[in-house]
């Protein structure tokens, strides 16, 4: 982990508009290899950045959490391939994951099944109508993602160790909800430090506000990389 922290840190471009995103990317420079583009930026003119970043030698995690009828998911994955994304999220429903893997077959696109959002807790699942606990639902969705041939999953650090027991060492385990030591949790309910996440078995860490909202984003990113280097 110490040798390749830069290849495991994904900075969430959780900003509105490509101008703000471009300023952040320029500020971070060579410190960051991976960027996440989600709904906020994608729906405010940021989708062309996927290809532009890829051509500049960066990698893009396109976090759109696709979920629809199978044909629509398949076409969405095909469009993501054309954009040049390296990772793409799909809500971990079996039919959606099957459609996504069919569309991405033979490509280098890593498909990630979203298990349970890190902003949710047991009360949220109950209110939504789920009868399973978070660990039970995560285990079910991870097993299904493995069985249909997904490239990895997205889950909270709290579930990472158990996920590794299910998927083994090869699949990606991408963990959002990362907060440097001493930082505020914001709206995340299940969080962890960078070192804790890596020690639990995460392959990639998604960090947004602790870097994006920092007075000096490059310094903040460098500090997080240093914390990652402390992992066992």
From TrEMBL:
<protein>
    <recommendedName>
        <fullName>Orotidine 5'-phosphate decarboxylase</fullName>
        <ecNumber>4.1.1.23</ecNumber>
    </recommendedName>
</protein>
<feature type="binding site">
    <location>
        <begin position="63"/>
        <end position="72"/>
    </location>
    <ligand>
        <name>substrate</name>
    </ligand>
</feature>
<keyword id="KW-0210">Decarboxylase</keyword>
<comment type="function">
    <text>Catalyzes the decarboxylation of orotidine 5'-monophosphate (OMP) to uridine 5'-monophosphate (UMP).</text>
</comment>
<dbReference type="GO" id="GO:0005829">
    <property type="term" value="C:cytosol"/>
</dbReference>
<comment type="subunit">
    <text>Homodimer.</text>
</comment>
<feature type="domain" description="Orotidine 5'-phosphate decarboxylase">
    <location>
        <begin position="8"/>
        <end position="224"/>
    </location>
</feature>
<keyword id="KW-0456">Lyase</keyword>
<feature type="active site" description="For OMPdecase activity">
    <location>
        <position position="63"/>
    </location>
</feature>
<feature type="binding site">
    <location>
        <position position="118"/>
    </location>
    <ligand>
        <name>substrate</name>
    </ligand>
</feature>
<feature type="binding site">
    <location>
        <position position="179"/>
    </location>
    <ligand>
        <name>substrate</name>
    </ligand>
</feature>
<comment type="pathway">
    <text>Pyrimidine metabolism; UMP biosynthesis via de novo pathway; UMP from orotate: step 2/2.</text>
</comment>
<feature type="active site" description="For OMPdecase activity">
    <location>
        <position position="65"/>
    </location>
</feature>
<feature type="binding site">
    <location>
        <position position="188"/>
    </location>
    <ligand>
        <name>substrate</name>
    </ligand>
</feature>
<dbReference type="InterPro" id="IPR011060">
    <property type="entry name" value="RibuloseP-bd_barrel"/>
</dbReference>
<comment type="similarity">
    <text>Belongs to the OMP decarboxylase family. Type 1 subfamily.</text>
</comment>
<dbReference type="Pfam" id="PF00215">
    <property type="entry name" value="OMPdecase"/>
</dbReference>
<feature type="binding site">
    <location>
        <position position="36"/>
    </location>
    <ligand>
        <name>substrate</name>
    </ligand>
</feature>
<feature type="binding site">
    <location>
        <position position="14"/>
    </location>
    <ligand>
        <name>substrate</name>
    </ligand>
</feature>
<dbReference type="GO" id="GO:0004590">
    <property type="term" value="F:orotidine-5'-phosphate decarboxylase activity"/>
</dbReference>
<feature type="binding site">
    <location>
        <position position="208"/>
    </location>
    <ligand>
        <name>substrate</name>
    </ligand>
</feature>
<feature type="active site" description="For OMPdecase activity">
    <location>
        <position position="68"/>
    </location>
</feature>
<dbReference type="InterPro" id="IPR001754">
    <property type="entry name" value="OMPdeCOase_dom"/>
</dbReference>
<dbReference type="GO" id="GO:0006207">
    <property type="term" value="P:'de novo' pyrimidine nucleobase biosynthetic process"/>
</dbReference>
<dbReference type="InterPro" id="IPR013785">
    <property type="entry name" value="Aldolase_TIM"/>
</dbReference>
<dbReference type="InterPro" id="IPR047596">
    <property type="entry name" value="OMPdecase_bac"/>
</dbReference>
<feature type="active site" description="Proton donor">
    <location>
        <position position="65"/>
    </location>
</feature>
<dbReference type="InterPro" id="IPR014732">
    <property type="entry name" value="OMPdecase"/>
</dbReference>
<dbReference type="GO" id="GO:0044205">
    <property type="term" value="P:'de novo' UMP biosynthetic process"/>
</dbReference>
<keyword id="KW-0665">Pyrimidine biosynthesis</keyword>
<feature type="binding site">
    <location>
        <position position="209"/>
    </location>
    <ligand>
        <name>substrate</name>
    </ligand>
</feature>
């Amino acid at each position: 982990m110490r040798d390749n922290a830069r290849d495991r840190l994904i900075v969430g471009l959780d900003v509105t508009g490509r101008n703000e995103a471009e300023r952040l990317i320029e500020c971070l420079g060579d410190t960051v290899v991976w960027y996440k583009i989600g709904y906020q930026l994608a729906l405010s003119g940021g989708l062309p950045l996927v290809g532009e970043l890829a051509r500049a030698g960066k990698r893009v995690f396109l976090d759109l959490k696709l979920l629809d009828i199978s044909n629509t998911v398949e076409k969405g994955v095909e469009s993501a391939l054309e954009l040049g994304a390296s990772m793409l999220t799909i809500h971990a429903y079996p039919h959606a994951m099957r459609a996504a893997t069919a569309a991405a077959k033979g490509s280098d696109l890593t498909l990630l099944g979203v298990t349970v959002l890190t902003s949710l807790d047991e009360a949220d699942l109950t209110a939504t109508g789920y009868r399973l606990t978070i660990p039970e639902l995560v285990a079910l969705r991870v097993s299904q993602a493995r069985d249909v041939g997904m490239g990895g999953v997205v889950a909270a650090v709290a579930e990472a160790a158990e996920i590794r027991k299910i998927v083994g060492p090869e699949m990606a385990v991408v963990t959002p909800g990362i907060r440097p030591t001493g930082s505020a949790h914001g709206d995340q309910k299940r969080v962890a430090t960078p070192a804790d996440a890596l020690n639990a078995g995460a392959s990639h860490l998604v960090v947004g506000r602790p870097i994006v909202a920092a007075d000096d984003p490059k310094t903040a990113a460098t500090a997080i990389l240093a914390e990652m280097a402390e992992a066992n």
